[in-house]
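To: structure subgroup
Subject: Chain for Friday's discussion

All,

I'm putting the inputs and outputs inline so they're searchable in the archive.
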Amino acid sequence: MVAEIAIGMVMNLAAEAAPKPIPLIAREAPCALRGIAATCSSSWSQGLHASHFEQRYRISHPETGARFFEGVGTYRIAPDGEVDGVWADSNGNIHPLDGTWDGTNLRINWGTPKTEQGRSDYQFLENGSLSVQDRVLDKSGDWRLFMQVTYPAQ
């Protein structure tokens, strides 16, 4: 009986410490790709396991819908908020990724020193909007912002 109570207390503490899951949302917003007007979309869904989340990201022509870029990320979130996963995209890239999730902010580091390294910061706001900043590590060691999008709440 004492052991069962202790196990229950540990499980409750672990559940309280774990960040809330990533919101399952789909958003679209105007954006710019290398100075060209575009439409960005980001949708988040449950993955194949309770700890997995999938993001589908697309940049398309605002009038024709033609695809400029598309990617899919699979993120595994541990109870402590540590994240690992993989990113695959229409440029032929497959990047490992790691990061952190605190229940509101998702910071993802992607790529390797042998390929390309980047960082994506997602802020899931209480009003339902999503703010995203994407950076790439340049040759001088600076993080260069290459995409910034705010998806409005729906």
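Points worth raising on Friday:
Confidence is low (pLDDT under 50) at residues 8-15.
The CA atoms of residues 71 and 89 lie 4 Å apart.

D.
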